[in-house]
Amino acid sequence: MAFSFSFHSWNFINFLSIIISFSLMTMESTVTQAASYGSVVQFRPSSWKLAHATFYGDETASETMGGACGYGNLFDSGYGTNTAALSTTLFNNGFACGACFQMKCVSSKWCYKYSPSITVTATNLCPPNWAQDSNNGGWCNPPRTHFDLAKPAFMKFAEWKAGIVPVMYRRVPCAKPGGLRFKFQGNGYWLLVYVMNVAGGGDISKMWVRGSKSAQWISMSHNWGASYQAFAVLGGQSLSFRIQSYSTKEIITASYVAPANWNVGMTYKSSVNFH
User: Fold this and answer.
1) What range does the record give for the signal peptide (predicted)?
2) Alpha carbon distances (Å) from 228 to 3, 21, 40, 85
């Protein structure tokens, strides 16, 4: 049987298709906007994956202070000793700074009984060691996924004598008390801000700043690690920040975080955070 239909039928179907397409576009735009502004986006744990873990420093974790994310003294910034340096593959050019990982030692005689799990925050980079084979000393060489833990963290799930152990790991939400913290550096023409105590995904992808004397948001560029910069004269006015999560794409606003007499070297706390 031949298939045929009238021009009027085609015209109606075409019109209906346009209406459906327009509705879907409107719906998609609405969902995207809702996910970016105002709605609460929950960061969900990822699936379990296999990697390896080593440790650096001693029991005091003094050698883990500072690091490629720029958090400085990890005790003062609230991260403590449950921290990790990530291999290049995981570090993602610093966009993984602040991310939280749950892991447990597996398939090794050095694992503690009952495989206790630990949760660590990414605060540093474990650089490649091209002088060593990736399976014999060059543990952080791409494309390996590897965690170099602070020694106190490593000792919570395995004997330190092991040196290296296989682990199962997954991304988990970061449980951080209170709001985001902003540590200021720079000068009168250049503001450099380190974002700390980030909950939810723990990571940041974009950031904006606005002075109380302006209605415009200034886009800040990624400097390194967990720091963002703005080349602008912002002195003498209260500062607000808008921050986007790298993982969930949620955007939150921290209003009037710093007073008009803010200064570099200071850390200012907000009342908002990711989930």
Assistant:
1) 1-34
2) 62, 39, 24, 20
Nearest-angstrom CA–CA distance, 58 and 140? 19
How do 227-230 and 267-269 pair as beta strands? unpaired
pLDDT tens across 163-219, in order?
A: 999 999 999 999 999 999 999 999 889 999 999 999 999 999 999 999 999 999 999
251, 256, 271, 255: which is closest to 38 by C-alpha? 251
Q: How many CB atoms lie within 10 A of CB 107?
A: 11
Residue 166 near residue 243 (C-beta atoms within 8 A): no
Cα dihedral angle (180, 181, 184, 189), rounded to 10 degrees? Answer: 20
Encoded tokens for 48: 């379990």
Q: CA angle, corner 241, sides to 252 and 184, nearest 5?
A: 135
The C-alpha atoms of residue 152 and residue 58 are separated, in whole angstroms, by 8
Alpha-carbon gap, residue 151 to 60, rounded angstroms: 8
Amino acid identity, residue 250? E
pLDDT beyond 90 at 261? yes
CA distance 215 to 210: 7
Residue tagged 């912002």 (tokens) = 234
Structure tokens at 161: 């004598």
